[in-house]
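__Protein archive entry__

___
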Amino acid sequence: MGRCIVIVYTRFPVPTCKVVYRAYFNRLFAPTYFSAVAALFYHHTLLRHLSSPLRRHHPHLLLILADVIFALIWLTNQTFRYRPLISREFIENVEKVARPDDFPAMDVFIGFNSGAD
């Protein structure tokens, strides 16, 4: 579980990936942040139920929507921080392992604007 290796039976070095174990702070912070977000949503629902029916709810709904969007952004970014990996590739050995005919056909278009006319 600590180390994953792509197995290729050659005499050349193979790509490896290693799990970074210094991510404990992120793992401890995630439940704390999640509980804060849950408390915030509870606060929003509590204010929604306690407010008068004549009061406008549009700003409140926009705040809830913004909080939901920020929570989803945090959740999707957290996946990369929960179990980070360090990988090492050996691109120079690709031609030694595979023939050029085995590579997929690919067109690469690189363009840039230098700003000088």
About this structure: The two ends are 55 Å apart (CA to CA). The mean pLDDT is 76. The longest helix spans residues 24-50.
